[in-house]
TrEMBL record, chains A, B:
Organism from which the protein derives: Leucobacter weissii
Keyword set includes Aminoacyl-tRNA synthetase: no
Pfam families linked: TetR_N
Renumbered residue ranges of the record's region Disordered: 138-159
SUPFAM superfamilies: Homeodomain-like (SSF46689), Tetracyclin repressor-like, C-terminal domain (SSF48498)
Keyword flag tRNA processing: no
InterPro entries documented for this protein: Homeodomain-like_sf, HTH-type_TetR-like_transc_reg, HTH_TetR, Tet_transcr_reg_TetR-rel_C_sf
Protein name: TetR/AcrR family transcriptional regulator C-terminal domain-containing protein
GO terms assigned for molecular function: DNA-binding transcription factor activity; transcription cis-regulatory region binding
Keywords: DNA-binding, Transcription, Transcription regulation
DNA sequence: ACCTGAACACCGTTCAAGT
DNA sequence: ACCTGAACACCGTTCAAGT
């Protein structure tokens, strides 16, 4: 037995994190595995399914006691791998609601609160990752080069911004 | 003068609406225009720029007096063309904040309120469009076939769901 | 200015065939 | 069961050349 499905998923996540979603092709995953592209189809029916399996892996272990904790945990899971928010958001649209995460949230804040929190969390994470990549090679207007070089200022402000938006939604949920 | 940049954008939007983002390739836009693929590069530097121009066109005319009206107007613009939410969300990430729409919102509800509302509106619209497409050929679990056939029930519930989430965020914003 | 034709370096996926 | 090799129908983009 040369490779297993778990090997394929792990290799795909490595390629994703190193090169980004745009270059995470079946052919590249295959070559990262030292195998022909066609070999992947023995483990996975198609690319869409592979992306869904990657998404499951990315959000595996997300948890928390309250709504805010759950959202923070989800957010940090999405930000842990390059383009993670994109991968999970796209895949979650097909497999309804990110692996029961929506149900867990719904139990805490109701279905409307759950979807509102999820849309916000995914949107904010996607925006953060897009900005990160723009800074990586483009020098975004209005960005302090030193702060970018330090690598801490952008994520610090992103964290604070996320908390402020979260507070707004939670305040709205409390009003009933 | 055979074709202008506006012709290219219009053709691209037609292809998008008929076939979806997945099949909205430079080659298909070219053939919709009766022209060779390479001809497009006389009007547009690359595909990413064409998508940004399409996004500008999609949200052209979005407006409103208050935050809720602005969000509703944006939402209906996104839903008016197939995969519109995806196209605008991706392009808006590069050209900051959907053509000053974020600034307009920020003036009404502050910067955190603006981004929270935008993340929510884009996320909800994307989810609605993904569901629509799943229903189009896959029969989503838990969906009433008659309601799908009628074509009104899904969008009616989507509208109501959008309003409920909007209310939550606006209530949270009012609390300050 | 606008377009053609040909090429380059890629894609996802299928399928017979090997071990 | 797992993989190779070759093929098919696509991509985005470049570039010389035509009118």
């Amino acid at each position: 037995m040369r490779n297993t499905r778990a090997d394929v998923i792990a290799a795909a996540l490595r390629v994703l994190d190193e090169h980004g979603l745009e270059f995470c092709s079946m052919r590249r995953v295959a070559s990262a595995l030292g195998v022909q592209p066609s070999a992947l189809y023995h483990h996975v029916p198609d690319k869409q399914t592979l992306l869904a399996l990657m998404a499951d892996e990315i959000i595996r272990g997300v948890g928390g006691d309250d709504a805010a904790g759950l959202c923070r945990s989800l957010r940090s899971a999405l930000l842990a791998v390059r383009d993670g928010a994109d991968v999970v958001a796209t895949a979650a649209a097909f497999r309804l609601g990110a692996s029961g995460l929506e149900q867990r949230l719904a139990r805490l804040v109701g279905p409307d609160g759950a979807s509102t929190l999820l849309f916000y969390t995914f949107g904010h994470a996607q925006s953060t990752q897009t900005r990160r990549q723009a800074e990586r090679f483009g020098a975004l207007p209005g960005t302090d080069p030193d702060a970018v070089a330090a690598g801490s200022a952008p994520s610090q402000e992103a964290d604070a911004s996320f908390e402020r938006g979260l507070d707004i939604i939670l305040a709205g949920l409390g009003r009933r």
